[in-house]
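Hi everyone,

Forwarding the result from last night's run.
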Amino acid sequence: MFKIEFEKSTGEYITIWVGFDGLIKKSDKDPAHWSERVVINPHLLETGKQMTVYGLYTDAIERESYFVLKVEKEEI
């Protein structure tokens, strides 16, 4: 599992935990929003890079991009 810290455009800092499959497992803020989202190739993320988050259950492709502040690999 990966622990990823990032900043939203509003200046809010958020931490999410992402499985190796890319599914967001939990978050420290607004869990309902993040529960149906996925990160493509989380193992390739690096600090200082952009992370794109995709919605799973939407009619149109929904995506958001965030600046990654920190990435850590955690044991389950």
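The longest strand covers residues 63-73.

Cheers,
N.
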